[in-house]
Amino acid sequence: MQGDLDNFLYLLDCLPVAAMVLLFNEEQQRESDRQKIVYVNKKYQQLIGYPLERTPNAEAWMEVVYPDRQHREKLMMLCHTFGGLLRETEEIAQIRMKIRCNDGKERDFQVTGDNRTIIPDHYLVTFQEITSLTAEIEQLRQQSEVDQLTGVFNQHHLLRRLEAEVERAESTGAGFTLMMFDLDFFKDVNDHYGHHCGDQVLITCVDLIRSALSGVDCLARWNGADFVVLMREDNPGIARQVIQKAWQGVRAHTFCWRDSTFAMTTTVGLTSYRRGDTTESILERADLALKRGKRVGGDFIFVDDSD
Ligand SMILES: Nc1nc2c(ncn2[C@@H]2O[C@H](COP(=O)(O)OP(=O)(O)OP(=O)(O)O)[C@@H](O)[C@H]2O)c(=O)[nH]1
Question: How many angstroms does the Cα of residue 290 sit away from the middle of ligand 1?
Fold first, then answer.
């Protein structure tokens, strides 16, 4: 048995993957004493940087590689499930975790626990670094939520935020305001000056609107020349004052294209959250308010105060 273990550990040192061996002892009273790290291979020491002496048991190891207490507590819960899963299913279990390595850098790892090792009660845990993969996924996730032309959020993100905001309003009672912005006669800009000029106008308008908002307000492109602002302000009067600055900012701006200058106006439809609202009902009301603003010729802020 000892020979098997020695051979097994020798093989682990030849692996190009960081690995540790855990010994499970179900008889120990305290959960933290049930898992003991009995071996870390060479690749583990190179990549994560801690020798076995620095990792005497699972709990101490956790404190070294997860100095952030909150992160550690979350992970302890995950690991508890992870260990339970391994013992119950006699299979492989995987989790993703952030580890503070000995060089002080935080890296992401795919951690795989395998209880099918040949030594009874010994579990093999391998660590595959996925830091660059995680960064790429995060970058793609962010890109998928942003409008490529203007850099503000897209409709997909807005709908997610709106859903979360409706849930928050339902549970806390703190409302919010939704505004739909449309550039008036934007099609004429494209027709007169070309699509490229239209693009620049959209970018400039976004900058002007954004500069009137605070960092917590969510500005998103709804489609074409329509934008939506979600503001955590349940008083429509106050929200109106803020949005008027954005509306006025676009109005006062002189747009230049080659030898020409021109002005732009916007129409805004504004509505506030009401108890029982869904994302659809509040969007519908904002759209209706926008249409009513358009009906009076645009260049207008229409506040929906119907009941
Ligand atoms: N340049 C440019 N044009 C776009 C883009 N997306 C949509 N459009 C154009 O935006 C126009 C639609 O805008 P609308 O708001 O419906 O038309 P509008 O002239 O502003 O009409 P009103 O809103 O009623 O004042 C169409 O001509 C689209 O081709 C874009 O990314 N770039």
Answer: 15
CA 117 to each of CA 45, 68, 133, 250, 304: distance values in angstroms, whole numbers, following the listed order = 21, 32, 28, 67, 67
128 lies in the same domain as 215: no
Same domain, 132 and 166: no
Tens digits of per-residue pLDDT, 146-168?
999 999 999 999 999 999 999 99
34-54 pLDDT tens trace: 778 888 999 999 998 888 877
Residue 198 CB–ligand 1 contact under 6 Å: yes
Task: Work out how many domains the chain is built from and give that number.
Answer: 2
In a domain, 120, yes or no: yes
Domain that holds residue 170: 146-303
What's the gap in Å between 213 CA and the centre of ligand 1?
23
Contact 288, 269 (CB under 8 A): yes
The pLDDT confidence band at residue 31, using thresholds 50, 70 and 90, is low
Q: Is the ipTM of this complex over 0.85?
A: yes
Q: How confident is the model at residue 307 (pLDDT cuts 50, 70, 90)?
A: low
Say if 141 falls within a structural domain: no
Alpha helices by DSSP H, listed for 176-235, are 186-193, 195-212
The token duo for 283 is: 């969007």
CA distance 19 to 10: 12
For the chain, the C-alpha Rg in angstroms (whole number) is: 29
Task: Please state whether beta strands 226-231 and 177-183 pair in parallel, antiparallel, or not at all (unpaired).
Answer: antiparallel
DSSP assignment string, 2-18: HHHHHHHHHHHHH-SSE
